[in-house]
């Protein structure tokens, strides 16, 4: 419904519809004598809705009993075109015609005026409907202002959360000695997948904004493990795996409802993450927590399986491993696109969600373009590849 501009009280535009000009004249004289200044009559019933659209009356009176057109049908047409109280209709009904009065209310008339007309009755009923409409319009305007205010407040909170998220991301890059190109590529790959599998655009944008922070938990990993140039020992790998929970907790800690009792030993749950009051921090926490889960349930930290892994985590898992494979590592050169596709396809349905992987590799041209826009650099993202190393060796 567009903005409704109305003149209320005696300045209201009132339309009387009847194919009998004498009836129009009688109703007109009563309304004019009561002080209404803008009263129109319409006896040509060939295009009533067109006339209403053009002249925009605030209240419409229709005679039920018209030889040319059924007044009740006209009432239905108007109510369909103008729901609510935008164009309230008063039906002009014979005093004793109870059936027409019943149908008039059933089809959406707000009241009726008895014929023959009674001056006081017509005045009272017209005044009551206009007063009702005035309150209706005011409540719409109040709601609209409230919605605007709420939207502005939501946007402000969202922007604050986003800025905080980006600062955290930069801090994480400093610790990890990363230039930022890796997370930029993961962000673009993730958004590409999210869009191509048909997620709503708002969710695609949230994933694009938050996926760069998937490894933020690495700021809680000791340097000797995080920056170790070679492969990690099994014990070191267990410590490295904690980055998922640490990352999820970082974002959870910004939720005023989150109780951080034993930060070092605490187990994060999806239920806690889903309860996060901030949409953007909830998504960031979800991705940090689940981006190392695997489709067959053998991932970490929650051993989640199949569609129990949030879609955000399944998407970033594909994007993160793809980027790690196609990037040089201290002890291994980057794989070619063909080799990477072959290797990841061998993990279709075990490590990766099959549908997401298939969708991702529909866009190999775009993937190469993203790599060109964000040139590769050495990455120390050893843990991202641990899961696919065995397959790489076999391949
Ligand atoms: Fe990670």
From TrEMBL:
Its GO biological process terms?
A: phosphorelay signal transduction system
Q: Does the keyword Phosphoprotein apply?
A: yes
Outline the extent of the Response regulatory domain: 13-130
Q: Which UniProt keywords apply?
A: Phosphoprotein
- Residue positions, PTM 4-aspartylphosphate: 63
Q: What is this protein called?
A: Response regulator
Q: Which InterPro entries match?
A: CheY-like_superfamily, Cyclic_di-GMP/3'3'-cGAMP_PDE, HD/PDEase_dom, HD_GYP_dom, Sig_transdc_resp-reg_receiver
Domain HD-GYP, chain residue ranges per copy: 157-376
């Amino acid at each position: 419904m567009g903005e409704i501009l109305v003149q209320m009280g005696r300045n209201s535009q009132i339309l009387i519809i009847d194919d009998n000009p004498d009836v129009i004249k009688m109703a007109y004289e009563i309304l004019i004598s009561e002080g209404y200044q803008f009263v129109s009559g319409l006896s040509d019933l060939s295009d009533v809705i067109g006339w209403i659209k053009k002249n925009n009356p605030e209240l419409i009176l229709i005679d039920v009993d018209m030889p040319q057109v059924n007044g009740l049908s006209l009432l239905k047409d108007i109510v369909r075109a103008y729901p609510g109280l935008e164009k309230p209709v008063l039906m002009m009904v014979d005093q004793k015609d109870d059936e027409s009065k019943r149908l008039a209310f059933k089809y959406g008339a707000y009241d009726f005026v008895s014929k023959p007309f009674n001056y006081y009755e017509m005045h009272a009923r017209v005044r009551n409907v206009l007063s009702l409409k005035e309150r209706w319009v005011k409540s719409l305007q109040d709601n609209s202002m409230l919605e605007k205010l709420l939207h502005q407040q939501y946007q402000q909170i969202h922007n604050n959360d986003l800025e905080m998220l980006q600062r955290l991301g930069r801090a994480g890059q400093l610790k990890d000695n990363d230039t930022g190109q890796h997370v930029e590529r993961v962000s673009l790959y993730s958004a590409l997948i999210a869009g191509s599998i048909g997620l709503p655009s708002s969710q695609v944008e949230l994933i694009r904004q938050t996926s760069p922070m998937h490894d933020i938990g690495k700021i809680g990993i000791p340097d000797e493990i995080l920056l170790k140039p070679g492969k990690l020992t099994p014990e070191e790998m267990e410590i490295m795996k904690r980055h998922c929970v640490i990352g999820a907790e970082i974002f959870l800690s910004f939720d005023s409802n989150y109780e951080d009792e034993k930060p070092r030993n605490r187990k994060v749950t999806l239920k806690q993450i889903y309860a996060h009051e901030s949409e953007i921090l909830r998504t960031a926490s979800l991705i940090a927590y689940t981006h190392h889960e695997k489709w067959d349930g053998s991932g970490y930290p929650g051993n989640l399986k199949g569609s129990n892994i949030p879609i955000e985590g399944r998407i970033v898992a594909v994007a993160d491993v793809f980027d790690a494979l196609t990037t040089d590592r201290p002890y291994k050169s980057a794989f070619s696109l063909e080799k990477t596709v072959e290797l990841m396809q061998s993990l279709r349905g075990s490590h990766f969600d099959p549908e997401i992987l298939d969708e991702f590799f529909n866009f190999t041209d775009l993937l190469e373009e993203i790599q060109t826009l964000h040139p590769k650099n050495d990455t120390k993202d050893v843990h991202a590849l641990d899961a696919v190393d065995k397959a790489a060796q076999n391949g």
